[in-house]
Amino acid sequence: MGGPQGLLSTLKLTCGEWTTAPVASAFPALLGSLKRFHLSHKVTSVVPESALLIVLGLVLGGIVWAADHIASFTLTPTVFFFYLLPPIVLDAGYFMPNRLFFGNLGTILLYAVVGTVWNAATTGLSLYGVFLSGLMGDLKIGLLDFLLFGSLIAAVDPVAVLAVFEEVHVNEVLFIIVFGESLLNDAVTVVLYNVFESFVALGGDNVTGLDCVKGIVSFFVVSLGGTLVGVIFAFLLSLVTRFTKHVRIIEPGFVFIISYLSYLTSEMLSLSAILAITFCGICCQKYVKANISEQSATTVRYTMKMLASGAETIIFMFLGISAVNPFIWTWNTAFVLLTLVFISVYRAIGVVLQTWLLNRYRMVQLEPIDQVVLSYGGLRGAVAFALVVLLDGEKVKEKNLFVSTTIIVVFFTVIFQGLTIKPLVQWLKVKRSEHREPRLNEKLHGRAFDHILSAIEDISGQIGHNYLRDKWSHFDRKFLSRVLMRRSAQKSRDQILNVFHELNLKDAISYVAEGERRGSLAFIRSPSTDNMVNVDFAPRSSAVEASVSYLLRENVSAVCLDMQSLEQRRRSIRDAEDMVTHHTLQQYLYKPRQEYKHLYSRHELTPTEDEKQDREIFHRTMRKRLESFKTTKLGLNQNKKAAKMYKRERAQKRRNSSIPNGKLPTENPVQNFTIKEKDLELSDTEEHPNYEEEMSGGIEFLASVTKDTASDSPAGIDNPVFSPDEALDRGLLARLPPWLSPGETVVPSQRARTQIPHSPSTFRRLTPFRLSSKSVDSFLQADGPEERPPAALPESTHM
Amino acid sequence: MGSRSSHAAIPDADSIRRETGFSQASLLRLHHRFRALDRNKKGYLSRMDLQQIGALAVNPLGDRIIESFFPDGSQQVDFPGFVRVLAHFRPVEDEDTETQDPKKPEPLNSRRNKLHYAFQLYDLDRDGKISRHEMLQVSRKREQEM
Hints:
The structure holds 2 protein chains of 2 kinds. In chain A, 69% of the residues lie in helices and 0% in strands. By secondary structure, chain A is mainly alpha-helical. Among the domains of chain A are: 77-428, Na+/H+ antiporter like fold; 438-498, no CATH class. The longest helix of chain A has 34 residues, at 209-242. The radius of gyration of chain B is 17 Å and the shape is globular. In chain B, α5 packs across α7. By secondary structure, chain B is an all-alpha fold. At the A-B interface, α19, α24, α26, α27 and α29 of A face α2, α3, α4, α5 and α8 of B. Chain A: It is a multi-pass membrane protein. Chain A: InterPro entries: Cation/H_exchanger_CPA1, Cation/H_exchanger_TM, Na/H_exchanger_3/5, NaH_exchanger.
């Protein structure tokens, strides 16, 4: 037993006083991370990681306690609030799906503000009432103490919520509501906490009405002030990143430092620090991602995830460890039990009431199952714990009772509710649906109907079109981006040429890849089996089409090493066929949009399958449209005239369209993308004769839709115009100078570069596709100034 | 919000409402949406306007749905036509069959009419029948890249 005994003293001896704490806290963190490695996915899908970490912390704390009989390392509020919480909140803000967030902002605010106040008030008052009835025995508490306790136990915790919701796949609206609420309720919590704490300090009898009014005013000051601080620092950060072209190495540092500064500043000013750093992350995302280099963006992403994951691990472990501290344990059955009951019940009531109110004003209604998730998913976590430990033991006599109760509440919500929420949701969902496995027919048609429904939703604008959003993007384009975005980023954002640029590149690469691959054995088995199956299923209308899809599939499988296709090599052809058939039917049924979207994850950064799917569908749609367009229109004119028309339209569309944010794709691919409708500023369509309108409209819609999806899809798109199955006008296309840069080399955008297999040979082979140089067609020049995208090859990418 | 101005009278609002069963508020919103989609303020929607909606491009059935707005090969759809198609998607109202007036035409969102709409999406050549080829097409659309 010599080991654990004197562990601490040994540590102190060897490491010295100052380093003991960091060393000793590194061990739990290390343990926690190791645990994450070895834990099978099955376990984590049942038990949320946070629960496991807490248990692990408990075990550790137990060991140390048994060994040394002292309470070891506790989660001190300082460490928590200054070191552990900021990375998590920054991570949440930086990767926040902005559109979704602001689209549901009203709902979120209502739950965050009104909901939290309701929870705090009702819990505090009820506990007070029970106390008055004598059930709790003799305690030295007053009304204000109860209200104080209520305010700190009421807040839903962002750390805990996210940790649990990662496993429970809810629809994106619900997710953003819970997530947003947990972030924004900090302002309320801070205000209530501070207000009641100062009241308690004053003494219950000295509180006047004026103080209450001051409290209410302080809420507004704290929340709006915090937000303002965050926005200011976001502005600062974006501005700074605009000029960091020559200090690329430390670019990522700026992001973290300035964001942390926003946190500290608002903490200094007694404003809501969480709101500040959240909004700093939310507001700066777009500009920072546009301005910094690709490597810096990657660095920032991974570092942020690392810090946030690490902080979360440490927090939960310390929660467990801190719980093992018998000195503070005070048990009062009535108090603890009733607290648990009250917070659950009142949260449910609050959610139901607010949802009823909201549903009268919301387009997308919140159903009962959503409300269940909302109320059951209101987890308390480390924030409450830190706040309660922060209480002044002198003023609040029953601090130990509060601490113990808080610990129990946190453990209960995280462990019990975290464990049971997933089965609960599944049970509720299953209750409403069929119990038998749908037949293939039903599946196919069911999917078809889902697609139809989401299409109709898009047409009727249920999710899109918003006046405020349009106004904001207009304002942003005109003013903000000018100031905050690097000029090159602005230019590429403004030019649709960029889009076609990459489209061409992508196609070129796929040609190259196919050429390479035909000679090599590496992937030949899987694509050939795929191909075989394809041939069985669908007799092609034209042989050329087969090669195109073959190409596309090649491309796709090249980018993501499909382990399944590699494994196929080892099996017999027949098995492979069966597997692929099944695989095909199961997997290639395109998922409708509302299904599982991995919106935000603290632990994952991988792109989802949906990009592939959307890419494929988009290819097909564009090709079809272009075919119909060309056969109806181009076939009528002579080739030469058509060529002129082509040029005209391209110039027109260049002038007309604008990509508000061409850099969106460099952002976290995990983010769900909802295709936005951008306002196509159709200028001067009137001045062209009518018969051109249809044609120009044709190219424009192509351009705009391409642009829409391009700006949102991280993976880039194939150029439909350039696909080889356009048997007609092959020569036409070759003659026309497409949208390639007239520069010396083919310049890939940052977005395209992520997809290009980086090899000098690839670049070399691309140059033949650089067709004629800048068009000096007088026709073009007459149409107006062309924007050139000679985007200089970004410095850092000589790969 | 700009909706202040959208209180401009919708032509034939009453008859549309009767035919489709939309509430006045819904109708107003749809009108607003119609006007937003109608880029050149033509007063009708062409295929281009509907194809502008980015999300439809990544929907495997997007084009067919756009087609369904243009019955009989017309190139334009006006507001009543627009609303008529969307009316198919209202929730089904299950009333007692007794209270229904047998002489009135079925409401657009009846089960039968919904099925009819779905049938239309499958029936590409509009001959009133779904051939084996058409059925395969729909399935094929989702099985693989062409």
